[in-house]
Specification:
Number of strands: 2
Structural class: mainly alpha
Strand content: 5-15%
Radius of gyration: 20 Å
Largest sheet: 2 strands, antiparallel
Number of domains: 2
CATH topology of the largest domain: 434 Repressor (Amino-terminal Domain)
Oligomer: single chain
Number of helices: 5
CATH superfamily of the largest domain: lambda repressor-like DNA-binding domains
Length: 140
């Protein structure tokens, strides 16, 4: 009989390179976010269905992550909550449950972007790139 930890490690290695495994994880993450936003904004399944122009059964499929969502449908759902959908590529070695974002810097020309955990504050450096939804001010 295989030891539980050894079995888990073998399965993890097997699934680590399976795109279907990662796709299912993304669906689950999205469904959890939708559920969280529904709770925060006190929106029922019926109300979400009405706002999306779909049936409550479709909302249930979303929440049970069995719906085959397109980027357009994900964006439509996000807009109902006053949110946006962001997609990023991150290195595979970022621990599960952690988000990584690239931090490009003009001081690191010719080098790969540095990835940092997005849930940890990073002290800004002088020439760091900072993304913002606000338009840049013109210098007079």
């Amino acid at each position: 009989m295989i030891e539980k930890a050894k079995w888990y490690e073998e399965m993890r290695k097997e699934f680590d390179n399976d795109p279907e495994y990662w796709a299912e994880g993304l669906k689950l993450d999205f469904a959890e976010e939708v559920g969280r936003l529904m709770e925060e904004q006190k929106i029922s399944r019926a109300e979400l269905a009405r706002r999306l122009g779909t049936s409550p059964a479709y909302v249930t499929k979303i929440l049970h992550w069995t719906a085959n969502l397109t980027l357009a449908s994900m964006s439509k759902i996000a807009l109902v909550f006053g949110s946006r959908v962001y997609l990023r590529l991150a290195p595979k070695n970022v621990p599960p449950g952690r988000r990584a974002v690239a931090v490009p810097s003009t001081r690191r020309r010719g080098r790969q972007p540095e990835f940092v955990a997005a849930d940890r504050p990073v002290r800004a450096r002088r020439n760091d790139f900072v993304a913002s939804d606000k338009p840049a001010r013109r210098k007079a």
